[in-house]
Amino acid sequence: MLNQSRGALRAFVFLWLFSACLHLSYPFLPANSWRSKIMSPAIALAFLPLVVTLLARYRHYFRLLVRAVLLRGIRDCLTGLRPEERAFSYVLTNALPGDPGHILATFDHWSSRCEYLAHLGPLKGQILTRLITQQAPELVLELGTRCGYATLLIAQALPPGSRVLTIEMDPRTATVAEKVIRLAGFDECKVELIVGRSEEVIPHLKTQYRLHGAGLVLLGHRPRCYLRDLQLLEAQALLPIGATVLADHVLFPGAPRFLQYAKACGRYRCRLHHTGLQYFPSIRDGLAQLTYLGPG
To answer: Fewer CB within 10 Å, N side or C side of the chain?
Structure first.
């Protein structure tokens, strides 16, 4: 999958270079030169089959680029709102308050039909729900609340008396997530939302938030931060033996250093759930499931 991601990146870079080459072709010729007028279309036609091939091969990545970056940027400028805020407006209008399942279904409809929204999605959500149902952890720690999608999945699957502690670094996104969580009917005893950077919050979880060990940890914030935060959890002794660490997006965009560490350090039993990217099933992604074996 890493090779595919690199291939997509090469395709984007190539297209940029191709465009630049068209603009820079024969710069020493005057703009109205007959050779300039003939040669530039000729070069474009020569590269056209390759461009068409790349577009066909990486069409799913281009669709993701258009939906998740280009169209999002346009909507952000036009509305002055973030994707999570636009999604919440839709949920508030169409979902049933106090019904987490209906709120999740409304998020799915918005993300698949209206505007791409990065969250766990229904397929990965089934894996998460199954694990929680099987293990019934007393406390779940989530890094990266986003719009609150995974938080609702966790909260509704937990047994009575268990709780969720979720951390979101962006205050504006956290405000939306808080509204979603309370709209679903979960109070602060069930779901506690902390606003702050994970690397700053984790060292204070024991003293300030009464967290002495998490039976399940969901990593869903930034893949490049997974390894750092996993090692912080180890250093703070917040992972009891047998605890599960579930990490999203380990194949796309990818967390190679995290996976390498988990497999090589001897502290975890590793399993990889192969899935597609939410709402883009042709783009391969996966959830890494780590079982903590102890400090070793």
So the answer is: C
List beta partners, residue 142: 166, 218
Q: Which one, of 229, 161, 237, lies nearest residue 200 by Cα? A: 229
Other CB atoms within 10 A of residue 163 CB: 19
Query: Confidence class of residue 61 from pLDDT cuts 50, 70 and 90?
Result: confident
Q: In angstroms, what CA-CA distances link 112 with 45, 67, 105, 140, 289?
A: 36, 11, 11, 28, 26
Q: How confident is the model at residue 234 (pLDDT cuts 50, 70, 90)?
A: very high
DSSP 219: E
Can you list the alpha helix ranges (DSSP code H) found in the chain? Answer: 2-24, 34-57, 59-65, 71-79, 83-94, 100-109, 122-135, 149-157, 171-183, 198-201, 205-209, 226-235, 256-264
273: left (phi over 0), alpha (psi -120 to 50) or beta: beta
Residue 135 near residue 95 (C-beta atoms within 8 A):
no
Question: Please, is 117 exposed, middle or buried when counting C-beta atoms within 10 Å of its C-beta (0-12, 13-18, 19+)?
Answer: buried
Name the band, by pLDDT with cuts 50, 70 and 90, for residue 279: confident
Start-to-end C-alpha separation, the chain: 31
